[in-house]
Amino acid sequence: MHEKKSKKGRKKRNGKPKGNPLREQILEFLTIHKTKEYTPYQIAKRLRVPDPERVIEQLGKLVKSGRLKETSKQRYAMRAPQTEEGSGKLVEGYVDMAKAGFAFIICQDGARDIYVAPGNLRGADDGDLVQVALTGRRAARPEGVVQRVLQRARTQIVGIVRFFSKAPVAVAQNGRRLYEVQVKIPENLIVEEYDRVIVQITHYKEKPRDVMKGVVIRNLGRDHSTDVEMQSILADKGFPLEWSPKIMAQVAAIPGVVLPEAGRRDLRGWTTFTIDPYDAKDFDDALSVHRDEKGKLHIGVHIADVSHYVPEGSALDLEARYRGNSVYLVDRVLPMLPEKLSNELCSLRPREDKHCFSVVFALNENYRVTHHWIGKTLIHSDRRFTYEEAQQLIEGQSDPLAEQVQLLNDIAGSHRKRRIAQGAIDFDTEEVKFRLDVAGNPVALEVKERKEAHMLVEEFMLLANRTVAEFIQRKQAQAQRIPFVYRVHDKPDPEKLELFQTYARELGVYLDFSTPAKVAASLNRLAGLARQDPKYKVLQPLGIRAMAKALYSTENIGHYGLGFEHYAHFTSPIRRYADLIVHRILEKNLKTVQREEQEGLERTCLHISNQERKAMEAERASNRYFQVLFMKAHIGEVFEGQVSGMSERGLYVSLGDTHCEGVLPYGAMAGEMSLHSSRMHAHSESGGRKWTFGDKIHVKLVDADLDDRELLLSAEL
User: Fold this and answer.
1) 39: buried, middle or exposed (CB in 10 Å: 19+, 13-18, 0-12)?
2) Of 23, 60, 215, 334, whose CB count within 10 A is highest?
3) Where do runs of H (alpha helix) occur along 436-493?
């Protein structure tokens, strides 16, 4: 009798069947986040379910019952009522324009891109932050109409002045997009026809017949010097070239004296040094090695305390937020903060006392962290090492600080080995650096070697970044959620991985992407192959493109590439606004609990992620310009290249030791060429020759076009 009652009790509660606890958790989670889509592994991580297969099983049942929907990308979300998609619900996101004129709106978690037809953009442009009303669906995507532009990405353009009936118009080309702006020329500025100018936009197009208007703020003339080209790249991406008088007055008033403060731990007695590139001027981070009176080993990671000098909400702070990050071009840096801060007051220069925000780690004899301390400090850097100098000490060169540097290298190596074993991806990509002469012209291209000294610094920065994110996570486990800025990296898109897998097979490399762990292991194996044989290096950029893009978000989905469940950017506040926000939130929550406003913080995350994208585009444009400038001296020369890409236009060829890439049009090759629909190989209709990724090919450089930043090749068969 007792057993029967027990069974009956399990079946019903208040006359209703008792649900599966995990299924109810999944439904509750997806109901709370009903505008987003998640993979089974993301859901398992968020619900702390150790076995993802249990989650996959329940998701399948919920899809079958009609309560959830599964997308083509193997993501899951609540199935919206029939009226929701067309209900006019408002969402925010950034415009990602396609060449054909339509756009996708990238929303907060990057999971549900909203399609917007050209006629529904209502004047919104690439990179703008917009509010969109959902109107329905187009294929598997939601579709919407832009309601209003919340923030313009392009506040200025670089164009050529033309006069029509004596009225000046600036004409600018951005990809396939042509901008015509009616401009006002200030009386104190002389501008002639065909001069290149920077225009501050004052009126945007909101309807097809509207006219863009603006004011000329700088005349770049007709000079095609490198300096003008770099200014044009920065201005075209919307980065201000100058600081306002108000901001410079605020910076000038900041005292340069550094004094001990109550609540700031004095670590000036610890052995401390920086390790940076030889040409660095801003030093964000320093490392300390210290043994206490009991012989316990302590490692300090000290980060410039920018928040001490930049008051939240000040004109300087708002400008730094707008810029989002420093921009690093080949021959210059456009800093996020004025040079008095970035290169002087905040920079951890040797033999100077400095305010820092530090994470201090206590380590045992196996170099494992036993506990840590986070807080404001006062430090004194004893020495400034370049990477090359630190590497010499690692390799055995005698120096008073050699023992400390070698110890740090041993600790970093131990942590790195464990991190890779736990699923981190180690993409060892080549980074090219130009050597410039005194006039700023490129005279050589060098591959920046990633040696132990680089990995030493990298490992301690990763440790500090991870530690502060875990601190906030533990803090909010004890109280309500603390909105925070995480650096997140989603799992790769299965379709992109499958395509990359196919590319790799073309080169005889078979990769296993059946589980997340095997994805990481396969990509690390590929990195090892590329180090052994240069022909496999062509695959690494393709592998990176298959990955999701890292970005900033208040939604912590973890960092797939690093294999971290919790990760934030803490270590570079001089050059990244995200780190400055992290410092402020961290300080407010060291001893108490203080919460930022979630919606405003997420909007900031969207903005700085977008600014980061624009900075990367500017950096790539700068690199392409200098590559073309460097290769101008080699027109007519023949190179042994490697096929690195394909399009309808032709083959893209990496030119041997130059590390430059040119385009070989099909018309410049013998016979009629045909590109396979897979875009993985092309062949000659008459000669029967097939070209695929990684193939060696001899080509001649026939032109180096600075206007299009392109190298044009012909075949030497």
Assistant:
1) buried
2) 334
3) 452-478
Q: How confident is the model at residue 108 (pLDDT cuts 50, 70, 90)?
A: low
pLDDT (tens digit per residue) in 214-264: 999 999 988 888 999 999 999 888 899 989 999 999 999 999 889 889 999
On whether the CB atoms of residues 284 and 358 are closer than 8 A, the answer is no
- CA–CA separation, 599 and 123 (whole Å): 25
How do strand 333-334 and strand 285-291 relate by DSSP bridges?
Answer: unpaired
Q: Which amino acid is at 371?
A: H
Distance separating alpha carbons of residues 191 and 505, to the nearest angstrom: 57
pLDDT band per the 50, 70, 90 thresholds, residue 12:
very low
**Residues 6 or more apart in contact with residue 551 via CB below 8 angstroms:** 110, 487, 488, 489, 605, 609, 612
Residue 570 · residue 303 · CB < 8 Å: yes
d(CA 320, CA 326): 9
116's tokens = 């917007």
The SS3 call for residue 301 is: strand
Degrees (nearest 5) of the Cα angle 46, 47, 52? 95
Distance separating alpha carbons of residues 160 and 222, to the nearest angstrom: 9
Structure tokens at 673: 């060429």
Burial class (CB in 10 A: 0-12, 13-18, 19+), 257: exposed
pLDDT tens by residue, 690-706: 888 888 899 999 999 99
